Automatic annotation (TrEMBL), chain A:
Organism per entry: Diatraea saccharalis (sugarcane borer)
Signal peptide as annotated in the record: 1-17
Protein's name in the database: Adenosine deaminase
Record flagged with keyword Signal: yes
Subcellular location: Secreted
Automatic annotation (TrEMBL), chain B:
Domain (Adenosine/AMP deaminase N-terminal) ranges: 17-100
Classification via SUPFAM superfamilies: Metallo-dependent hydrolases
Record-level Gene Ontology MF annotations: adenosine deaminase activity; metal ion binding
Organism per entry: Diatraea saccharalis
Cofactor(s) needed: Zn(2+)
EC number: 3.5.4.4
Catalyzed chemical reaction(s): adenosine + H2O + H(+) = inosine + NH4(+)
Adenosine deaminase domain location: 195-488
Subcellular location: Secreted
Family to which the UniProt record says this protein belongs: Belongs to the metallo-dependent hydrolases superfamily. Adenosine and AMP deaminases family. ADGF subfamily.
Enzyme class (EC, first level): hydrolase
Name listed for the protein in its UniProt record: Adenosine deaminase
Key words, A-Z: Hydrolase, Metal-binding, Secreted, Signal
Length: 500, 507
């Protein structure tokens, strides 16, 4: 530092007055500081230990980023998530973020949260039938041969597995159906549609298996466990609430599915009292007509009536570009808006000015509480202001946007701009199991290292965690924030004590 | 009693229904208002169209919508979301492109002198006599004109290119291979997905080979004339050229000093204008590499001052060039730049990076503090809200080069380019093409096309195009008189262009 300064002083002494030089340097500093003061997290004041912890974090961050800056290929967020997802686990910062209390997950879809290994394990359950067809396969639980149409023939998965030549090989093949992970992501997923096709195939394949009532409840229980282990204390789960079935073929309705969920949450909180529970956002498919949406709304109201504390609100899901635009349902949604809170997906697109992009206008007009993704919002300056003014939180899912091909290099993700302007943001993970990411830690790490400014520090991380509590539908927020603060302090203390 | 209950139920039903409709209307109103307000903010929205322009606009928008609708609902991927090289040869088929090609585009304000010309034209220049070639082991190529074997170092040995070409079995194949040294174009996916440093290395290699070729005085003259011709044919009437000044040589090895190159630019431009009186001309932005020493930069700035006195019509200002992440930050040069800022106008590159919060990113701050007239690229600016506001307030134009940012590995899908936001905000933007020769792009039409169809909103129409062209006049370094003449010529050409669109109609 000193030699450069001396050099500067020498260099300027010949012609420019030192005053003039210092003026520019001061102004530069002010401008930079003004931006830092505007960034998400700026309102937080550090305690002494937090200052120490922050130094540790920022030292590690600078070291890693400097390496990346010098040789981008060695450490490269321009590549696909699949190509760096395991490498990031080597980072001490990843370890830290993993341990960090992250608040809540506010945007996740129920059957996309657990890893393919978990799903593979489920195929070891009794009474699971399989039908291998050309490219796909069907899975279903039943106490006798299923009546569902099968292009080839139904067999017990157990029989198929043990008559196969190589069980390991058999399982490896099976596992491929439960993940989007591939070796050559750029070739396999060359655009939004090719990625979504594979993505939807995952749900088509696993859906009938998960919808076995016992499997469903177990999956959700284990989801909560995984979420808790990733240091998340609460989750708002989106579900299409498909009908569940029993081994003997009995089929239940959507409301029963919601009841199943509630039962599992209650049990889980009893088993793990440090977890703050879950709420449900009923989020059925958007590729339907207005009459169906009317039916959806009826179901939503009925769930709300029966489980007012468990039900959070309503949303519509599915690939936005190909789905029905929100404006087609405007009259149904306006009519129900006083009774239902909305948590709409919108602007999960990179088309500019098309119907999917303009869903953003509709959901804001419909007074949505939060917006899922809002990827396109950065192209709508007025709406961005409106979102700030009304305190509508954006649920940003960076890795999801990479895997589902909205953006290649995360450094081009609009979240960078949202963070710089202190737009209310919460980080979430959408369907992390399907791309083999952690419930939330990967998304936090990549946001911190790849998206946010090099200057963004622990304040940003803490604010993002706090935001997820502020913008949740938890009733007693003071209590949960208080509990969060306790955990945060513990985390900071261990960080300082362990001297990373 | 009973009837009155029924009556009140019906009444309340009616009221609910009625109020629901009112509420719905209010929402529709909200929505429409938002949409309209955004439309009014967009770049070009303040332009009033004539009746004829409206008619032309309908035709243009018919083709644009058709093109976009085809990929939106259809399962065919949107071409423009891929690397430029993947669809570049398909562009010519687009009706929108064919219209844009004919459009008068004003000036190109961000162009580097050595990369103005396409590879085919460069290949033609290798047919000039006395050109020696040195094919090196690492696959790179050195070129030098000389009346005897060049004294310049060649680790293998110098051969006359003509001899090599004549001795080859297949001249076409030979030329095709040679051509590769003049362009970054490739179909190799690995190279298309390379990181920014790797891509820039390839870019520098191409740059060095071309520079070899055009440092020879007679070839430089031909090169420059042809370059102006290409811009002119692409309906660009004015170019601001970023160039370092360096010695150029004659066949016998004698050299001209750096200022000679400036004179050459002026001389050739004059000749070109003589033959094309509606061409406005060029201006020079003198550049220095951003890895230079502070002394070297001071020397270049002194040269700029000299030019400003001797050739006042030519010089626009000064800039620093080279890969921003790897070069020195602007702040290292602050002392010299502060010293010069009252005498020399700056046109800095800034924020040509996607690293956030790094020195290259923060060059944007220095550029603005130093009073830059425009900023080259400003790719990272969207992440700096205060700076964005300051620049808008100071009316500092952004020189956008979308295709350059794709080819040089900043962004893949152009729909994620920050220009979309700048256009939506109505910020002062000009479109340029940086080094179109290096990636076989049109001088300016490809950049206009990709911006119009791939980056801007689907709703952006002929007003956006016209405003972009007008901006290039407004934010140029021309004096008021020459701007006035430029506007006049532009308006004349624009009227003809609008008529042509209408004549072309919907077929
Ligand atoms: Zn989602
Ligand atoms: Zn440039």
């Amino acid at each position: 530092m000193w030699p450069t300064l001396v050099y500067f002083l020498l260099a300027i002494s010949c012609a420019v007055s030192i005053d003039e030089y210092e003026n520019v340097i001061n102004e530069r500093h002010d401008l930079l500081q003004r931006e830092l003061d505007m960034m998400l997290g700026n309102e937080i004041t550090f305690s002494d230990s937090e200052i120490k912890a922050n130094e540790i974090v920022m030292h590690l961050k600078a070291k890693e980023l400097d390496r990346a800056y010098r040789s981008p290929y060695a450490y490269n967020f321009t590549r696909h998530f699949f190509e760096y997802k395991d490498a990031v686990k080597q980072s001490p910062l990843y370890e830290i973020i993993k341990k960090m209390p992250k608040g809540a997950i506010l945007h996740a879809h129920d059957v996309g949260l657990l890893s393919p290994d978990y799903v593979l394990n489920m195929t070891y359950w009794d009474n699971l039938y399989v039908c291998f067809e050309e490219d796909n396969m069907q899975l279903i639980f039943s106490d006798k041969t299923p009546k569902v149409t099968c292009g080839t023939q139904w067999q017990l998965l157990r029989d198929a597995r043990y008559t196969s030549i190589d069980v390991e090989e058999f399982d490896a093949e099976l596992r491929k159906h439960f993940t989007l992970l591939v070796d050559e992501p750029h070739e396999v997923y060359f655009d939004v549609n090719s990625a979504w096709n594979r993505f939807q195939q995952y749900f088509i394949t696993t859906g009938p298996m998960f919808c076995y009532k016992l499997a469903w409840e177990q999956y959700f229980y284990d989801t909560l466990k995984a979420v808790r282990e990733d240091n998340v204390m609460y989750i708002e789960i989106r579900s299409t609430l498909p009908p569940l079935y029993d081994l003997n073929g009995e089929v239940y309705d959507s409301i029963a599915t919601a009841e199943s969920y509630k039962k599992v949450v209650d049990q889980f909180v009893k088993d793990y009292p440090d977890f703050y529970g879950a709420k449900l956002i009923y989020a059925p498919m958007r590729l339907v007509d207005a009459a169906t949406v009317k039916e959806y709304i009826k179901i939503a109201k009925e769930i709300k009536r029966r489980m007012p504390d468990f039900f959070a609100g309503f949303d519509l899901v599915g690939q936005e570009d190909l789905g029905t635009p929100t404006k087609e349902f405007l009259s149904e949604l306006v009519a129900a808006k006083d009774e239902l809170d909305y948590f709409f997906h919108a602007g999960e697109t990179n088309w500019n000015g098309m119907s999917s992009d303009e869903n953003l206008f509709d959901v804001i007009a419909l007074e949505t509480r939060r917006i899922g993704h809002a990827f396109a919002l950065v192209k709508h300056p007025l709406l961005l202001e409106e979102v700030k003014k009304r305190g509508i939180a954006l649920e940003v899912n960076v890795i999801s946007n990479v895997v589902l091909k909205l953006v290649g290099d995360v450094r081009n993700h609009p979240l960078a701009t949202f963070l710089a302007q202190n737009v209310p943001v919460v980080l979430s993970s959408d369907d992390p199991g399907v791309w083999e990411a952690d419930p939330l830690s990967h998304d936090f790490f990549i946001t911190f290292m790849g998206v946010a400014s090099r200057h963004a520090d622990l304040k940003l991380l803490k604010q993002l965690a706090l935001n997820s509590l502020y913008f949740s539908t938890i009733k007693d927020k003071d209590r949960v924030v208080h509990e969060f603060e306790i955990r945060w302090t513990k985390f900071i203390d261990s960080l300082v004590r362990d001297k990373w | 009693m009973r009837s009155s209950i029924i009556y009140s139920v019906v009444l309340s039903l009616l009221i609910t229904r009625y109020s629901a409709r009112v509420v719905l209307n209010k929402y529709m109103l909200d929505r429409t208002q938002f949409l309209e307000e955004e439309d009014n903010l967009q770049l070009g929205s303040s332009l009033q169209l004539t009746e004829e322009e409206n008619e032309a606009n309908e035709i243009l928008m018919y083709w644009k919508n058709k093109e976009i609708e085809a990929s939106f609902k259809n399962s065919t991927p949107f071409q423009l979301s891929k690397h430029f090289f993947k669809y570049k040869n398909e562009i010519a088929k687009s009706k929108v492109y064919q219209i844009i090609k004919k459009m008068p585009k004003g000036g190109a304000l961000h162009i580097h002198a050595s990369m103005m010309l396409d590879a085919d034209s460069l290949l033609e220049l290798t047919y000039e006599d006395h050109l020696y070639a040195c094919y090196m082991d690492d696959g790179s190529l050195k070129l030098h004109f000389s009346d005897a074997v060049p004294l310049v170092l060649c680790p293998v040995n110098w051969k006359l290119l003509k001899d090599l070409r004549d001795a080859s079995d297949d001249v076409e194949q030979f030329d095709a291979e040679l051509r590769k040294h003049f362009s970054l174009y490739t179909e190799n996916d690995e190279l298309l997905n390379a990181d920014i440093n790797e891509t820039w290395e390839r870019f520098h290699k191409v740059y060095r080979t071309i520079k070899n070729l055009i440092t020879y005085r007679p070839v430089r003259e031909k090169y420059f004339y042809k370059a102006l011709q290409n811009f002119y044919n692409d309906n660009v009437m004015y170019v601001e050229i970023r160039s370092g000044l360096h010695d150029i040589y004659e066949l016998d090895g004698t050299t001209h000093d750096a200022l000679y190159l400036a004179e050459l630019y002026e001389r050739i431009t004059k000749r070109f204008i003589d033959e094309h009186p509606d061409f406005i001309g060029i201006k020079l932005i003198l550049t220095s590499g951003r890895w230079s020493s502070i002394e070297k930069v001071r020397d270049t700035i002194n040269m700029a001052k000299e030019l400003k006195t001797n050739m006042p019509g030519l010089l626009a200002g000064f800039d620093l060039v080279g890969q921003e992440d790897k070069g020195k930050p602007l702040k290292d040069f602050l002392p010299v730049l502060i010293e010069a800022r009252d005498e020399i106008d700056f046109y800095f590159h800034g924020g040509e990076t996607n690293w956030f919060g790094t020195t290259s990113d923060e060059n944007l701050f220095d550029a603005v503090l130093l009073g830059t007239k425009r900023v080259g690229h400003a790719y990272a600016l969207l992440k700096h809200p205060t700076l964005l506001a300051t620049m808008n307030q100071k009316d500092i134009a952004l020189e956008m080069n979308v295709i350059s940012n794709v080819v040089l590995s900043l962004v893949k899908d152009v729909r994620n380019h920050p220009l979309a936001s700048y256009l939506a905000l109505g910020y002062p933007v000009v479109l340029s093409s940086d080094d179109p020769g290096a990636w076989d792009a049109d001088p300016l039409s490809h950049d206009f096309y990709v911006t119009f169809v791939g980056v801007a909103s689907v709703h952006a129409d002929i007003r956006t195009l016209k405003q972009l062209a007008l901006n290039s006049i407004r934010y140029s370094a021309l004096d008021e008189d020459r701007k006035k003449r430029f506007y006049d010529i532009f308006n004349e050409k624009w009227t003809i262009f609008v008529k042509k669109i209408i004549e072309g109609g919907l077929n």
